[in-house]
Amino acid sequence: MAAQNYYDILGVKRDATQADIKRAFRKLASKYHPDAGGDEKKFAEVSEAYTTLSDEKKRKQYDQMLLFGGIPGADFGGSGGRGRGYGYSTMGGDWSDIFENIRSGDGAFSGFDFSQIFSGGVGGRGGASRPSKGGDLTMTIEVSAEEAFKGTQRKVTFTVPSTGEKQTLTVKVPAGAVDGGKLRYRGRGEFGVNGGERGDLVVTTKVAEDPVFKRDGADVRMEIPISMWEAALGAEVQVPTPDGTTCRLKIPAGTQDGKAFRFRDLGAPNVKRKGTRGSLFVTVRVKVPTRLTSEERKALEALRDADKRTYREDVENHAS
Description:
Helices cover 27% and strands 22% of the residues. The protein is built from 9 helices and 11 strands. It has 320 residues and is α+β, with helices and mostly antiparallel strands.
């Protein structure tokens, strides 16, 4: 009898959505799970099918395999074969090897060991009980900019798809955590098949934006406004730092808009190099008054009339 493909095993159509696949798997897993007195062999088949179809990359490669319409002697996918009744291994093989051979011109199956994918060839169905590691689970947690800077903890609850079991874990967000950073908890993912080890839980941190400080890895950037008088005459201003303290910035006379100053070791903790910190970069923004009193206007007009500098000499020379 022709072997079923993974879609047949889960009872879904070829164009099934991920939600359809997950729903079908949970229903079948609860029915066949050995702990509930189900059929262990059937549970392994269902888990194997879900492991492939729930992964977009593996599913795409698997769909490409089905396009062959039946590999000679294998009856893969249930059509065009010679009816030898080959089953499925527990994901011991790497589908990408086949398609890499196709791309390189070596032939679809050059140098590929079919025993990794198809059990029941030479040596019968010996691969049916091969242990297979469970897939990784993913989740995202949101933290404030301050929490990311100082580090924090979150108690999270997640569900293992194969069993519907809810598990709780305390996630430790390290000081200096960045937006999009990943924390891996080994052995907390999907259960393995046939005694295989569990996959991992991968937690991604989503860091909220701060109105003042902008993260660039361990470095922190900020802008501080100064008046045109401070830029022209020079000044000293207090600058806040990410850890809640302040530092003093000395602005030289004649400072231009956009000038950046660097404070070493006043940035965020470096998660890649423990015990070190990034820098704080402070960029000054010169603010020009939009409204002037009559006294201010007279004073500025007097300064303008007394100023004999040429500010646009290069531009004027270029135009002439």
